[in-house]
Structure formats: structure tokens, C-alpha cells
């Protein structure tokens, strides 16, 4: 396995804000994300964190720059290849869980496993293992509405792990939770890293998340500025 799971070079991205005006949000960002660590990127609202995450995961395209994930240049992939690659290699956790309301917790986690080609039975087996890891073995048959906010987000974490991804991207993963439930999710990330070998890239406007990171960066004025933010 590649020690640098993501290598990004010279990422630029502008958005048109009016007919004849555009704003450069990412001004040539270069970044390396290490395997088996939790990397946290903090920055003010509007700094470009979600934009950067979308670009690093191939959900959006940069105007300039190059991104290697596991040594593979994602700009060279077709949309179909990229979406297959994403389903297999990248897990996503967002502020809102986006679980499918009509399916149970175990079905929500099983769906991406089936999309990757597994049978329903195999997918459910793996789904139940994952729900056990996130501490929800006894809630697997609940639908999202029958779970607390913190539990819903733990199902979303299990779903992100579904296909054993090389990296998990989390965008404000605890932004919708109270501090106690937020802490549970943070401890879960640390446990998943330490005991299960997962790699995380977490972005947040909340400086509280600095303590979660093995590596911490700040994004400001379209660039990464590295002060002494790291807590370890
Ligand atoms: N599709 C788009 N079209 C135009 N402008 C956009 C688009 N997406 C993002 N922007 C602008 O780019 C800037 C960065 O947005 P982004 O969502 O990346 O910020 P963020 O750091 O994630 O903020 P937050 O902490 O509020 O989530 C914002 O000013 C936003 O309005
Ligand atoms: Mg954002």
C-alpha cells in the first residue's frame, strides 16, 4: 500500500459569481494525505473545505492540478471508472447522514456492498459486522427514524466502511450532533484508525476537531497554511 494515500498538486478552482466575475476559491493547493492517520483540515465557513473535499474525491473537477489516490491519477478516469473507483476506495460521511428512510440500518449499510457486486446474504453479513464495530449490533433492524441522531450518524460511519475503503472523507461529521454524541463519533474514528487500520480526512469549521487530528492543516484565503495546529 502507498504510504501517501492522496497526493494533490496545484489544485485550483474558481466559481463564477456573476456574469463577468469569478472568484478563485482554491489557489493552487498541494497536499499529501498519509495512510493510517486522521488528517483534519480546519477553516472558516466559505474557506473552501467542502470544495476541496469534493475535488480530492473526484466528485468535482479542479480547473488545474493533479490528484493521485492510491497512486492512480483520477483525472485520467472516465466518469464510470471514477464512480466505480469511489464506491470501492472512498467512504463518505457528511453532516447529515443521508440514510435511506425506508430501509433498516443493516440494509442501508448493505446497499453499497451489493452495488460492489456482493449477494444480498454476503452484504448483510458484512453489514452486521460493521454495525457491531460501531456499537449498533442491537439496532440493525431499526429504520433511521427509529434511531437517535448519534446512532444515525454511526450507521452512516458503518456505511462509509462498507467496501473497506482506502480513505474515509468526512465533511463536518459532527456538525449536526450535540457535544456528547460528537465525542462518540470522534472516539469511533480514533478506534477505527487504531484498531482497524482506517485512514480519515476530516474537514470542519470547528476548531474543536483539531484535537482529533494526527495531522492538522488550516485552509485560508485559498491556500493551506500550516502553523503549529497539530495537537500531537
Ligand atoms: N457550485 C458553486 N458555485 C458557486 N460558488 C460556489 C459553489 N460551491 C461553492 N461555492 C463558493 O465557494 C466558497 C467555498 O465554499 P465551500 O462550500 O467549499 O466552503 P466551506 O469551507 O465548506 O464552508 P462551510 O464551513 O460553511 O461548509 C463559498 O464562497 C461558496 O459560496
Ligand atoms: Mg462545507
From TrEMBL:
Residue ranges constituting the ABC transporter domain according to the UniProt record: 6-232
Cellular component annotations (GO), alphabetically ordered: membrane protein complex
A GO term, aspect molecular function: ATP hydrolysis activity
Membrane-spanning parts: none
Any Pfam family: ABC_tran
Protein keywords: ATP-binding, Lipoprotein, Nucleotide-binding, Transport
Family, per entry: Belongs to the ABC transporter superfamily. Macrolide exporter (TC 3.A.1.122) family.
Name assigned to this protein: Lipoprotein-releasing system ATP-binding protein
Presence of keyword Iron-sulfur: no
Tagged with keyword Transport: yes
PANTHER family in the cross-refs: ABC TRANSPORTER ATP-BINDING PROTEIN MG467-RELATED, LIPOPROTEIN-RELEASING SYSTEM ATP-BINDING PROTEIN LOLD
